[in-house]
Each structure stands twice: as structure tokens, then as C-alpha cells.
Amino acid sequence: YRGEVSGKLADDVQDFITQEAIHSREHHLLNNKIDREKYPVADIEAEVLERVNFGRAGGPMRMLMATICLEHFTSMMADLMFDADIDGVPIFSQTDPALERLWRWHAMEETEHKAVAYDVFLEVTKGWPSLKRYFRRSLSMLLITKHFTANIANFSAMLLEADGYTREEADRAVKEFLWKKPALFGRGWKVWLSWFKPGFHPWDHDNRHAMDDWKEALTPVPAE
Known about the structure:
hydrolase activity, hydrolase, UCP07580
């Protein structure tokens, strides 16, 4: 749909594409540092690619619907991630500083462009009846939610199994992490539910203040 947008939105789309390309590069580099003999990285990557190809096979609108729904999820999780704790202990308290910095940077970027794909959706469907637009995005979110949460849980459990958990123990640990402590999904349900409000827009949940804080924390301080 790049040819169907213009002005500031076209600029935003180009910035979005650039950011996503950088994200892919950084996570590809990270994945290559993981012990592939121990962890099932190749299996997970193959499953992700299969799902991406399924989306592409459905044409541009299916890809756009998947994108706007997944952007809602990732921005929601980014917003919740960095004040998350388990019994008062921040979830990144024992994380390598370089890895924590990567996740903070990624969260900031996800927040910064969280509305771009949605604005494209609004532009390319402006001729649709409002009820059709609402039904399409609502149905898409329900389907994406079902598959995305299941995939996240399954992939996380696969990694824990590689660490010696039984499948039952892994499933229980993932469920507790996502829904109880620190409850990235459990605490995010209000933001998730806001999607179904008529007239919804991603910046209705305005967390630009958090993005500014992250930018300040990630900006290198010049040497004196």
C-alpha cells in the first residue's frame, strides 16, 4: 500500500520500514549468538516463517490486518515490560546490560511507530462502510490474539524444555509469567480491549512520556 499513501504518512511508512529492517537485523544477530545445539532456534524460526508465508499468501490486506494487530500487541507489551517485576524484583535485574539495552531500544521503537500501520489501514479503507471496517479489524484481532498468544507460549515453553523443564513445568511457568507474575498479558488486558472501541486509535493510549524517558536513558552522554 505504499503507493496509496502520501505526505507525512508516506514519510512515516518509510521510517517504519527502516526501523523494522533494523529490528530484523538486530534480532538476527541476537539469534545467531544463541546456542543452537541446545535451544530449538531453527525450529522456532521455521514455524515463524511458515506463519509469515501464510499471511503473505492472503495478499496485502491480510498482511496489513496482521500487522496492525501485532503492532497493537507489541506496543502494549513494550509499555508494560520495563516497570514489570516479580515480587518487587525488576524482570531485567539479572539480564546482561547489552541485552537489556537492546530490549529497551526495541520497546522505544515499537512505541514510536505503533500507529503507522493503523493509519495506513484507515487511509486505504476510507471508502469502506464504518461497520465493515470495524468488523474486519475486530475479527482480525480475535484471530491474531488466539494464534499469537498460543505461539508465544509454545515457543517459550520449547526454550524452557531445552533448559531441563518438563513440558508440564514449562507450560506452567510460561502461563504464570504471562498472566500472573509479571503478567505482561494479564496487566495489558485493558489496552488490548481498547481495540474494540468504535473510533479506536493507537495513540488513544498516549505513552509518549515513557518513550521520551527511554530515549533519554539510551542517549549516549558525550565525554567531557
